């Protein structure tokens, strides 16, 4: 029995069992667990199989990392010169050349120390992503609920999720009311998603409304969050700047080798020089044949640049990334939370009013009255936030009853008494539900649907508002017929500085492209508002699967050059069969796992952005790069 269990759990670890889509009872069967949770002993056994519920951190010896900065072609020549100064220069009664040896070693140590300190301070990408994981969670072990470190979770654990919790692992929801989850860090979707019992929730997303229990199905690097995070740490490509330095070093080695060979032939077989004289000449040739101070000059320049970038809120993971960023001509930026606020707002200019005696401000006020003023979800916060003072939502009225949102009615409503003692109701919700509530006629439905379609074309979500009087003056009474009042367009607005930053980037020769997991229409509307263009394509076009045959036939490089951005991009696209496409997705997706990771073109991101907005950094690296000697 124990052997079968171990094999089954190993299969789950290797993801041969699809726990995301099978019925919830089969999940319990496959995981060999119950709704009473695991025992502490079983949890410990599974921890040995699945490992801790945290991201893998690359453990690297600090000594080896320090010595690694001395392992490159330029350093090899300097090290050869240092060895020659003491090992081969000891002849003809003369002592070793300790002065040259000490000088060369000092330059090597200084260069390595500067690079080591700067990169060590920056840390690695996994450490930045770890901040997005919940440190504590409520778990059912031995039949008792207790707060535990999230790292001890294993598949089969029963956890409790409530408002404000960061979900600590991928899980399937058990019985209970629907949950509203913000998974914008993973998908780019700014509006919380409703999750019903049986649905999967992802590690790293946030509970915005509700409380429910769930069974853990994946932990650590096997979660959706963990796989996305792994993309960041697995993209250690050699940068352009490092390639240039390697080329210079290789050229120096070849030219010095040829020069030394000629020198040896001339000095000894032809001129019959003394041993020490020849070694001194070779040492001069060896040291003089390389730009011996260049690594130190570069390290100091990069270190100064790294410090100045840190003052602007960017930590440089690799110092060579400064030169790479200075030389880039395309910047791929995430949308949600980077170009935009990741906060829903109402576009007042586009509000549609359907009642003559009501203006746009009153439509917003009615919607605010139908919203919670405490424990708000994203829509309530957006509506109430449109008022000059949030207290206006309840000013001059007395609340009698509030109907919260539920997945059946898909609306909220408030029954209240105004200052004259009259009873009213205000409701907001999905347009179809509000139209049905108002028993709307066909001409009104057509007009509303036309406006909804117009909003949808621009990537705007629609929220309907209705009102009624309650002459019976009781909260249970049906009231008079509902009146359809208006439509509110909801949108995740751009940051106040995004358009200016994009304009400055363009002036510096950097073309900004939007990469988002959101819908294509929303991406186009954001691009229009930011002035970065609306020539956006769905992610399917990068996989050669666009419905438009002319676009599907385009070479991927041409499509990337032509596009202003791509929508519907998720980490799973890294599995693309095309090398060029998979490399593009790798660079794109590296910006998606959390809000700590943002943008670079076609390559893994070399900067960790400590601010949430798109960094206005291109100008600074160009200034820093201009100080680097070109010869």
| Average of the residue pLDDT scores | 78
Q: What multimeric state do the chains show?
A: single chain
Ranges where pLDDT stays below 50 over 5 or more residues in a row are: 1-7, 574-583, 585-613, 624-631
Q: Structural class, judged by helices and strands?
A: alpha+beta
Description:
By secondary structure, the chain is of the alpha+beta class. Among the domains are: 124 residues, Calcium-transporting ATPase, cytoplasmic transduction domain A (Distorted Sandwich); 105 residues, HAD superfamily/HAD-like (Rossmann fold), CATH 3.40.50; 141 residues, 3-Layer(aba) Sandwich (Calcium-transporting ATPase, cytoplasmic domain N). It is built from 24 helices and 22 strands. It is elongated. The N and C termini lie far apart (71 Å).
Note the topology.
Layout: H1 2-13, H2 24-31, H3 40-50, H4 62-68, H5 73-88, H6 98-122, H7 125-130, E1 136-141, E2 144-149, E3 158-162, E4 170-173, E5 179-182, H8 184-187, E6 193-195, E7 200-201, E8 206-209, E9 211-218, H9 224-233, H10 240-270, H11 275-288, H12 294-311, E10 314-316, H13 321-326, E11 330-334, H14 335-339, E12 345-346, E13 352-353, H15 360-369, H16 378-385, E14 398-403, E15 411-417, E16 423-429, H17 431-437, H18 442-457, E17 461-469, E18 483-491, H19 498-507, E19 511-515, H20 520-530, E20 536-538, H21 549-552, H22 556-562, E21 565-567, H23 579-589, E22 607-609, H24 619-626
Parallel strand pairs: 11-19, 19-21, 20-21
Antiparallel strand pairs: 1-2, 1-3, 3-9, 4-7, 4-9, 5-6, 5-8, 10-22, 12-18, 13-18, 14-15, 15-16, 16-17, 17-18
Family: Belongs to the cation transport ATPase (P-type) (TC 3.A.3) family. Type IIIA subfamily.
Subcellular location: Cell membrane; Membrane
Region (Disordered): 595-631
């Amino acid at each position: 029995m124990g052997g079968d269990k171990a094999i089954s759990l190993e299969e789950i670890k290797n993801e041969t069992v699809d726990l995301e889509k099978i019925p919830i009872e089969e999940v319990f069967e496959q995981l060999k667990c119950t709704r009473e949770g695991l025992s502490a002993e079983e949890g410990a056994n599974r921890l040995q199989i699945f490992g801790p519920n945290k991201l893998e951190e690359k453990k690297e010896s600090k000594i080896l990392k320090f010595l690694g900065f001395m392992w490159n072609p330029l350093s090899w020549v300097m090290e050869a010169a240092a060895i020659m100064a003491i090992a081969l220069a000891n002849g003809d009664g003369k002592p070793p050349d300790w002065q040259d040896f000490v000088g060369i070693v000092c330059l090597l140590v200084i260069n390595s120390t500067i690079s080591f300190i700067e990169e060590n301070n920056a840390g690695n990408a996994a450490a930045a992503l770890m901040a997005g994981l919940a440190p504590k969670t409520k778990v059912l072990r031995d039949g008792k609920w207790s707060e535990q470190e999230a790292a001890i979770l294993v598949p089969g654990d029963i956890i409790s999720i409530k408002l404000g919790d960061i979900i600590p692992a991928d899980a399937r929801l058990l019985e209970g009311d629907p949950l509203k989850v913000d998974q914008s860090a993973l998908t780019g979707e700014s509006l919380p998603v409703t999750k019903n019992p049986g649905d999967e929730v992802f590690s790293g997303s946030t509970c915005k409304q509700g409380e429910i229990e769930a069974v853990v199905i994946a932990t650590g690097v096997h979660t959706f969050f963990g796989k996305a995070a792994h993309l960041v740490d697995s993209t250690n490509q050699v940068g352009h700047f490092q390639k240039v330095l390697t080329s210079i070093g290789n050229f120096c080695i070849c030219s010095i080798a040829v020069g030394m060979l000629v020198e040896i032939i001339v000095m000894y077989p032809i001129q019959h020089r003394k041993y020490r004289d020849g070694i001194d000449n070779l040492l001069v040739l060896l040291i003089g044949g390389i730009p011996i101070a260049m690594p130190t000059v570069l390290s100091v320049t990069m270190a100064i640049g790294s410090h100045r970038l840190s003052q602007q809120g960017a930590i440089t993971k690799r110092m060579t990334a400064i030169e790479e960023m200075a030389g880039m001509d395309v910047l791929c930026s995430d949308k949600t939370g980077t170009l935009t606020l990741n906060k829903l707002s109402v576009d007042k200019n586009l509000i549609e009013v359907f009642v003559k005696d009501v203006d746009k401000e009153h439509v917003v006020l009615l919607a605010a009255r139908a919203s919670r003023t405490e424990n708000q979800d994203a829509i309530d916060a957006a509506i109430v936030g449109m008022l000059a003072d949030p207290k206006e939502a309840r000013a001059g009225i007395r609340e009698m009853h509030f109907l919260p949102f539920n997945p059946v009615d898909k609306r909220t409503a408030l029954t209240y008494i105004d200052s004259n003692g009259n009873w009213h109701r205000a409701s907001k919700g999905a347009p179809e539900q509000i139209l049905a509530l108002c028993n709307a006629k066909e001409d009104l439905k057509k007009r509303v649907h036309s406006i909804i379609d117009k909003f949808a074309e621009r990537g705007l979500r629609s929220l309907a508002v209705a009102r009624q009087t309650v002459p019976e003056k009781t909260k249970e009474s049906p009231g008079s017929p509902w009146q359809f009042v208006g439509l509110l367009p909801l949108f995740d607005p751009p940051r106040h500085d995004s358009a200016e930053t994009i304009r400055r980037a363009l002036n510096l020769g950097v073309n900004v492209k939007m990469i988002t997991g959101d819908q294509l229409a929303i991406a186009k509307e954001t691009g229009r508002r930011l002035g970065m263009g609306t020539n956006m394509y769905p992610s399917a076009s990068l996989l050669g699967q666009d419905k438009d045959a002319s676009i599907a036939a385009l070479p991927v490089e041409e499509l990337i050059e032509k596009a202003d951005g791509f929508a519907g991009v998720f980490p799973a696209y890294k599995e693309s069969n095309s090398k060029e496409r998979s490399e593009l997705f790798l660079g794109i997706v590296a910006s998606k796992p959390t809000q700590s990771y943002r943008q670079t073109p076609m390559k893994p991101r070399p900067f960790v952005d400590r601010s949430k907005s798109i960094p206005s950094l291109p100008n600074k690296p160009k200034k820093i790069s201009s100080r680097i000697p070109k010869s």
